Automatic annotation (TrEMBL):
Belongs to the class-I aminoacyl-tRNA synthetase family. The lineage of its organism: Bacteria, Pseudomonadati, Bacteroidota, Cytophagia, Cytophagales. Its EC number is 6.1.1.2. The keyword Chaperone does not apply. It comes from the Bacteria. Keywords: Aminoacyl-tRNA synthetase, ATP-binding, Ligase, Nucleotide-binding, Protein biosynthesis. The gene is trpS. This is Tryptophan--tRNA ligase. It comes from Sandaracinomonas limnophila.
């Protein structure tokens, strides 16, 4: 099976990206018979961020996160979308011509911003078509993503099927989204979906004290310390629940229900479990960030390896139109 997923370089990787995409994609890549295409969607980034230096730094940080969580770049494919831009954007053009206008007008990524149309660039509007091209260019079967991407994968299936119907053959593999229930939508420190744009994210790669500061900002209700608390409606507990062991979670739940256990204690425990659970990844992340040349080299190798696959798909599509 071919597994494929991408992350934009619009900020540093956050806990939502890590639990929603990075860890599930790497787990899938380890299963025998699978090969994974994990990339940095830096062309997509340009829809929101135009500063080249910032895009570059974020790209390195996203790449370092993939590597820190153990992505095996020898066995798989690791690349920047921008370095294969001729293939991604050529295919996007063909797919654009199969994409009904109302489909794009209904995309959440556009609708969320459509109240201020002057701020919407054409890149943001056609964003899902570039994403569809990213996926079908490499014949991906499975796309592990967070819940916010479900609609984009549905669109990819519709657009690719329209080309297959016209060509009366399977030009494209029709992909499936893989969205794990428990990490579908990771909450941010304010309880809304964790995201770069809402600035409510947790950056697990921060120095220990700064990470604690971020965790302390998690919003809580005002139940007094001595009273019992409802774990199911608390953001700190929800995050703890995603990371800690079963025993630790059971213990934490009884602490909440018993009372005498404050949100400050819960946050301290969340910080501790993060430091422990991500100790290895944090160390490796720092190593790669201090050695950007190693990241660069791994990406360049991946980009060379992936190019013939992209070329082949483009060839197949061109034949349909006699180009
Ligand atoms: P992006 O960069 O916004 O997010 C990258 C991945 O992280 C997941 N994610 C979350 N999962 C759970 N809870 C959250 N709070 C959370 N925040 C982010 C996202 O669902 C995603 O899987 N359009 C994509 C990038 C992309 C792509 C692709 C993905 C471009 N081409 C092809 C898959 C296949 C995006 O903006 O992701």
């Amino acid at each position: 099976m071919r597994i494929l997923t991408g992350i934009q370089s619009s900020g540093r990787p956050h806990l939502g990206n890590i639990l929603g995409a990075i860890i599930p994609a790497i787990e899938l890549s380890k299963k025998s018979g699978n090969e994974s295409f994990l990339f940095i969607a830096d062309l997509h980034t340009l829809t929101s961020l135009k500063d080249g230096e910032a895009i570059r730094n974020n790209t390195l940080a996203i790449a370092a996160a993939w590597l820190a969580f153990g992505f095996d770049t020898d066995k798989n494919f690791f690349y920047r979308q921008s370095k294969l831009a001729p293939y991604h954007t050529e295919l996007m053009w063909y797919l654009n011509c199969f994409t009904p206008f109302p489909m794009l007008a209904n995309a959440h990524s556009f609708k969320d911003k459509s109240s201020k149309l002057a701020d919407v660039n054409a890149g943001l509007f056609t964003y899902p078509v570039l994403q569809a091209a990213d996926i079908v260019l490499y014949d991906a079967n499975i796309v592990p993503v967070g819940k916010d991407q479900r609609q984009h994968i549905e669109m990819t299936r519709d657009i690719a099927s329209a080309v297959n119907r016209l060509a009366k053959q399977d030009i494209f593999v029709i992909p499936e989204a893989e969205i794990s229930e428990e990490v579908m939508t990771i909450p941010g420190i304010d309880g809304q979906k964790m995201s770069k744009s809402l600035n409510n994210y947790i950056d697990i790669f921060l120095p220990e004290k700064d990470l604690l500061k971020q965790i302390k900002k998690i919003v809580t209700d005002t139940t007094p310390l001595e009273d019992p608390k409802d774990p199911e409606n608390d953001i700190t507990f929800k995050l703890f629940n995603l990371i800690a062991s079963k025993e630790e979670i059971d213990q934490m739940r009884s602490n909440y229900l018993a009372g005498g256990f404050g949100y400050g204690h819960a946050k301290q425990a969340l910080h501790e479990v993060m430091m422990r659970k991500f100790a290895d990844a944090r160390e490796k992340f720092d190593y790669y960030m201090n050695n950007p040349k190693i990241i660069e080299q791994k990406l360049e190798e991946g980009e060379k390896k992936v190019e013939p696959i992209a070329q082949k798909t483009i060839q197949r599509v061109r034949e349909v139109f006699k180009f």
